[in-house]
Amino acid sequence: xxxxxxxxxxxxxxxxxxxxxxxxxxxxxxxxxxxxxxxxxxxxxxxxxxxxxxxxxxxxxxxxxxxxxxxxxxxxxxxxxxxxxxxxxxxxxxxxxxxxxxxxxxxxxxxxxxxxxxxxxxxxxxxxxxxxxxxxxxxxxxxxxxxxxxxxxxxxxxxxxxxxxxxxxxxxxxxxxxxxxxxxxxxxxxxxxxxxxxxxxxxxxxxxxxxx
Length: 212
Known about the structure:
Layout: H1 12-15, H2 17-27, E1 32-36, H3 45-48, E2 53-58, H4 64-70, H5 77-89, E3 94-101, H6 110-119, E4 124-129, H7 134-143, H8 145-156, E5 159-161, E6 164-166, H9 169-185, E7 189-192
Parallel strand pairs: 1-2, 2-3, 3-4, 4-7
Antiparallel strand pairs: 5-6
């Protein structure tokens, strides 16, 4: 729950559809991993703490101003870090998704974001670079016009895979190596997603190995 759409959108506060799904999973003794950007996941601690579960929380920046531009409808970074601490303190293992990393926008924060996540209690870091469809790249460039032209140049010199534009392989490897070094320094395990790269110390890409 879920890589393609967040299970804790704003409407979940009233609809409680994801909470209902968790209830069914709990009744059937299923293992569950929640992937979200929202601190609303803490509402369901009564079930998550009694299940074989783990939560992956996306954390792209520590800057509120950047978060508002990059993810305008998502909770601010401080709330996500508080959610990590809340879950960990109550026995739910948490991984952090430092994703996506976008050159010129949040790449200089990698070490700081990893450190903050680990200080909040994260034991596993997952990272990935921005993989853009042409329309999506246009939106990012419009939201960050000062970095837009450099981004277009970088992605034009990269590669295409399954309809996505990727950074050049060397640039992606450099960013993932930096994230890996930061994770290891903080005592966390590391993996990267959909980069076509293998790291010897990497665990499961999605952090599901944290489920007890």
